[in-house]
Specification:
By secondary structure, the protein is mostly helical. It contains 16 helices and no strands.
């Protein structure tokens, strides 16, 4: 699971540093640039919630293998894209497949560990995954500069094919669902939906929506264009900035897992939202590479504090029998944020280059009040 998660995140990160720039080159008008990033999340909105419930019936390991197969096919389509429409198609298929992996992966981890250790387990696992992102951002910039955008997708496809082979060939991986001992019958789809009518769960999902709305709209779309077009920073240096930001995220993931188990999930979510809001606003004021590197570290730390606590909170808000469905709902909100963020923030960027940073900061600050109202059932 760790090897697959690391490889998947490495592949995703390789493309993030240049994807908006590649999309702009295929569509100089910029109308469809936001849709390239959004497509990865748009396809996921249709499968996240059903996959969480289906995984209880057919096995999470099986869904993970299918998801990896779809992901590498989508990446391969991107590698041969000469049109922005083909690129959007490839990203959509890649996103659809990744949803099957991430939903099953998260549900399995929440099942395997008791509440007092979930934060550390989730933080450790996610930090290993994000080491792939840390390495992928600067490496993606270098590969794009020397190989070209399309060839980088061939490297990503090779990583995804390797992950698929691990999932298919490993006997232990095929039996992974046997390690989860549950004393309840899988709920029906209607029962699962009824059990998720929980205000605190909806608040957690909305905070996750806001986090992804900003992350994909600003940090994965507008931010690269802002640095490249407004400040004339080349793609190699953009990769370094993104890599440093991921480094801050990794450190926070390791630490926040332990802190959330010790001090609770809510304080870390509040602190993380505040740090994120201040760092993203400060991006609009910075002009030097050193300033962006420092802000990237702070932004990454804030994101890491939020990430672990939000995911673990899910297991503490609902009954175990509908946990997988709750994870699907949580990730559906996240995907909607990923769909809307790039499109809306690209529109704002074309109107005024710094307005996306201001709007994102205000949204994150508004989420502080919602975070204070979350109540756990554990």
């Amino acid at each position: 699971m760790l090897i697959i998660g690391f490889s998947l995140f490495l592949g995703i990160s390789l493309s993030k540093v240049f994807l908006p720039i590649m999309a702009r080159s295929l569509d100089p008008t910029g109308i469809l640039v936001g849709f390239v990033t959004s497509a990865w999340f748009f396809a996921r909105t249709f499968i996240e919630l059903p996959s969480g419930i289906i995984s209880l019936k057919v096995g999470r390991g099986n869904l993970i293998s299918i998801g990896l197969a779809l992901a590498f096919i989508g990446s391969l389509i991107c590698a041969f894209s000469s049109s922005i429409y083909i690129l959007i198609l490839g990203m959509a298929l890649w996103g659809f497949g990744s949803a099957l992996f991430f939903t099953s992966n998260t549900s399995l981890l929440l099942d395997l560990f008791k509440p007092e250790r979930r934060g550390r387990a989730m933080g450790t696992f996610q930090s290993i995954e994000f080491i792939g992102s840390f390495l992928g951002a600067p490496l993606g910039g270098l590969l794009a500069a020397y190989m070209g955008f399309n060839h980088v997708f061939l490297v990503i496809t090779a990583l995804l094919v390797s992950s698929f082979a691990i999932a298919i060939l490993s006997k232990e991986f095929r039996r992974i669902d046997d390690t989860v001992i549950e004393d309840f019958s899988p709920p029906t789809f209607r029962e699962a939906l009824a059990g998720m009518g929980n205000l605190s769960l909806i608040i957690v999902c909305f905070i996750n929506f806001s986090r992804m709305f900003v992350s994909q709209g600003v940090m994965s779309t507008v931010f690269q264009l802002y640095l490249n077009e407004h400040l004339n920073i080349n793609v190699e240096l953009i990769g370094i900035i993104m890599g440093v930001r991921t480094g801050g995220l990794i450190c926070a993931l390791f630490l926040s897992g332990y802190l959330s188990d010790k001090f609770g999930r809510k304080p870390l979510i509040i602190i993380g939202l505040l740090i994120n809001a201040l760092a993203i606003y400060a991006y609009s004021l910075a002009s030097l590479l050193q300033e962006f590197i420092l802000l990237g570290i702070l932004d990454g730390v804030g994101s890491g504090l939020i990430f672990v606590s939000l995911v673990v909170f899910i297991a503490e808000l609902v009954h175990p029998s509908i946990r997988a469905g709750a994870v699907g709902l949580y990730r559906t909100f996240m995907d909607i944020g990923g769909v809307l963020g790039p499109v809306i923030f690209m529109f704002m960027y074309d109107m005024h280059t710094q307005s996306p940073f201001w709007a994102a900061s205000i949204l994150l600050l508004l989420n502080l009040a919602l975070a204070l109202s979350i109540k756990s059932r554990v």
